[in-house]
Amino acid sequence: MMASKEELELVNEELEEIFQASFAEIFVTDQNGVVLRVNSVCEENYGLSSEEIIGKHVKDLEKQGIFYPSATLKVIEKGKPIEILQETGFGRFLHVQARPIMDKSGYLKRVISYSRDLTELSQLKRKIEEMEDKIEIFKKELQEPLYVDGFITKSQSLKKVMALIQKIAKVNSTVLILGETGVGKSKFARLIHSYSDRETKVFNEINCAALPPQLIESELFGYEGGSFTGAFREGKKGLIELSNQGTLFLDEIGEIPLEVQGKLLQVLQEKKVRPVGSNKTLSVDVRIISATNKNLEEMVEKGQFRKDLFYRLNVIPVYVPPLRERKEDIFPLVYHFLDYFNRLYNSKVRFSPKVLDALLDYRWDGNIRELENIVERLVVTGDDIITLRDLPAAIRQVNKSFKGKRLSDLMADFEKSIIEEAYERHHSSYKVAEELGISQSAATRKIKKYIHQPELAVISNNDFMLNTEQDS
Fold first, then answer.
1. Which of 304, 320, 336 is the last residue of a domain?
2. CA distance 176 to 368
């Protein structure tokens, strides 16, 4: 029973709808390679309208660089189905499956190609490869760091400090630890104590900047009962006496008042301490380690610090270099703190390579303490993968200098950073376009311009063939 004209028209309409609605590109030629039909996906892949493609020979399209190589030509030549990887002149990468359509006599009538866009997948693959390469570099940077009692370092300067500490720990000389805030001066003081013969004895510490000047004297030297208003009736032992046979660490020694400095000098010279309000002195065996981030020599010249006390404290100076002077320690510390806080908060946070680059370039005026705080903040507040947008503005903007640059270059740099960050988040030109409010084709062009694209290796035509022996 033959179908009516209306039924045939309905079937044709349905087939056309299916043809145009396909997510894959459908490309139909005659037996000679002249394009008969294409669906709307072709326009996206090649940047041409259907009218500009239909009626053209695939060999001419190939010569114009619209696509390469032509799957249709290979089917015509081989007479069997093939699969190839094809690059378009519009910057897309397609997986093409082409097959011949034969008549009852076995003669070629049509070639139909189905193409899937692999551009996003190829870019993601390249991104992953780049990330893996960077991770390998970072792993090499992490090789053979020195781990000692909570210290992690690869820098020769800090390894020299560690060697010096091991040497001076065995003697009782006073030590003055010099360094910026956050370099870990108190940890070095504890390390000296742990290496010394006093390791089983008490270790006390006091931050001289954390107490009002009027309280520092009583905290260090103690006092007799009733020595001043508010004093305990029975009196109180000071930290110097409580540290007998052990170690006392005086942090921020530059903050100690001048009137207290003389009494501390007596402890260092005579090994004796006199509590506030007492006429008696007590013999003490205590090792004094002090630390400061100030220039005590300048303070001596200005009359803010006693010269004789400075010389007594500065018998063995130990300078701890800031983190910006030992960049090789940044990655080991970052991974150490990242692992620690991931375990502490039951997280699985990781840093992208660009984040690691930014952390490496940052100045770190707060040194290790600042680095530790930043890593903890990112683990607590960030997603599984930390990107540049998650970093504090001060770290994101580091080393962005305008000097010597034209306005057009600065604007291009700014656009590049926006595109890179958006693409790092989405790995999709469609989503980048949606986020930035631009067309998908504009997003594709900018991604291609600013982000390295995967390059096809130079392969012979035969290398593209998967030699599928499908029936036609």
1. 320
2. 20
